[in-house]
Amino acid sequence: MDEDIIVCEILSRLPVKSLMRFKSVCKHWCYLIKRDPYFIDLHFSRSKSHQCLFIVELQQSIGGVGGDIICRGRRAQFVAAELSPGERGRGTVTSTIHTMSKTDLFSYSTIVGIVNGLICFVDRNKHDVCIYNISTRDQITPWIKSTLSMEEKLIGVVSGSCVYKFGFDPVSKDYKVIGKWKILDEFEIWGVLTVGENTWRKIDEAPPCYIGPSAPSVYVNGFIYWFPSRYTGGDGFIVAFEVGCEKFRALQVPTFILRQRSDYDGDKVNVCLLEVNGSVAILRRMTVCDIKLWIYGHIDKENSKATAINSGDKNWTEKKITLPAVCWDRNRFLCCDPISGTDQLIFEIHQKNSDALPDSVYLYSYELKSKNFKPIKISGIPSSVPIDDTKT
Prior knowledge:
The protein is built from 6 helices and 28 strands. The protein has helices at residues 2-11, 16-22, 27-34, 37-47, 148-151, 255-258; strands at 52-58, 61-65, 68-71, 76-84, 93-102, 110-115, 118-123, 128-133, 138-139, 144-145, 163-169, 174-183, 187-194, 200-202, 217-220, 223-226, 237-242, 247-252, 272-276, 279-285, 290-296, 308-309, 316-322, 332-338, 344-352, 358-367, 372-379, 389-391. An 8-stranded mixed β-sheet has the order 24-25-26-27-5-4-1-28, with no helix packed on it. The longest helix has 11 residues, at 37-47.
């Protein structure tokens, strides 16, 4: 309807706080704001110009594994803060709280992805997933359990090596969860859940190498990437899953990346995967003072049937980042999160207490182009809200 297009054009320019009020105008507006795919996509695309920091406060949080957030809590609190760079040449980035919301009470163990304002919760004990909209504070799907193991008549207990990840197909506008279940440590089943259909279906595709639950992973521009825990061969690969066509492939990692010895973790290849300006990137700490970032420049979507891509050294750009002095203490745990679609990174430095548990956190903004670190000062957050983790 032409009237709907006009309404969407107007509402899509409003901040989330205003949208929450306009949901009560009428049922149709409430549907547009909460459920209409065209409006949701339009509002998100226009919101990209406003850099936003999501602070995820998790009750009884126990840290992160492979890019996911692990917790034992039953409720998550989300705090949204808009980043303002301030005056040029000044050394601080300000961040002002404009939205605070809590999920309803439900049991979950892991957050496996935040994509376009939607968040995927997983209950690993029941093997259920549900999708929650941070902006509208609505649960988009019910808790959905996979019955694929029963359909395959595989008798046994699902092992603890299950894998879940959340992604988006920018062509069809579909959100999908991909999952892997291991039965009796022998059989593996891969399945996909499309949000809206709300049923799991088996896919015959399988990755070219083993992917464990602790493998670093990230969603970037229509692809879900994993850095595998181990390889079937001697070469290193990043596994890429294209959300649209639901195909796996292996993206070769050049030896000049894998063979660099780290003075921080020795010969171990401890890395994390990030999105930098729409591309997948590998981040590795080399010393207490420095980290290196390798950004991949291209992936061929037309070659969707390929099982492997020889990326070559020339497709990877290496960046060296000298960390601020506050990071140099080995008792401080370092995390890094990107601001999607930009070359800006958010660094979290967690100070541990005498029990080796997170006690406080420092936030820094880093721009690859200017190579400048700036501390982030957050205002407007109540002292009663502890900050356990941050996503952008």
